[in-house]
């Protein structure tokens, strides 16, 4: 079996997130990967009406979901197909976004240990370059480290 490229593998993991008709597919259906490196990934997603709160701006719960997915996607760049479960997630909201804006999600795996992984996720508005939110995401990964679909990259 040949070793997939980091980009191909990250796309495979993202497709797995979208494989069911659940929450991830509902909110992330138009997310695309734009750049990938060891421990780092950049994705883009257009802000749609479903992502807005009652004030017509991007919903904080949606941005928190992006931090969750971003942390997982950063782990995919390390060859992890299943990316564990969240143990801690925090987010700081700095600016907003509206329908039609494009969110750039820059995610990084800061540390990959034997039981926990630590990630950071910065969300920026592609239109004006402003940081929308900064997140930190810790995941329990011990049970995922030996998954048969993991690969060496």
Description:
The protein has 153 residues and is α+β, with helices and mostly antiparallel strands. The chain has a single domain, classed as Thiol Ester Dehydrase, Chain A (Roll), CATH 3.10.129.10. Helices cover 24% and strands 35% of the residues. Strands 1-2-4-5-6-3 form a 6-stranded antiparallel sheet, with helices on one face. The chain is globular. It starts with 5 loop residues before the first helix and ends in a 13-residue tail after the last strand. The model has no long low-confidence stretch (mean pLDDT 93). Keywords: Hydrolase, Isomerase. It holds the Pfam family 4HBT. Belongs to the thioesterase PaaI family. It comes from Rhizophagus irregularis.
- Report on the biggest sheet: 6 strands, antiparallel
Amount of helix: 10-25%
**Number of helices, where a helix is a run of at least 4 consecutive DSSP H or I residues:** 3
What structural class do you assign from the helix and strand content? alpha+beta
Q: What is the subunit arrangement here?
A: single chain
Instruction: Please identify which CATH superfamily we are dealing with.
Output: Hotdog Thioesterase
Please give the order of strands in the largest beta sheet. Answer: 1-2-4-5-6-3
Low-pLDDT sequence parts: none
Mean pLDDT: 93
CATH-defined architecture = Roll
H/E element order: HHEEHEEEE
Gyration radius, to the nearest Å? 15 Å
Strand-residue fraction? Answer: 25-35%
| Top-tier CATH class | Alpha Beta
Distance N to C terminus: 13 Å
CATH topology: Thiol Ester Dehydrase, Chain A
Shape by Cα distribution: globular
Count all strands and give the number.
Answer: 6
Estimate nothing, just give the exact number of structural domains.
1
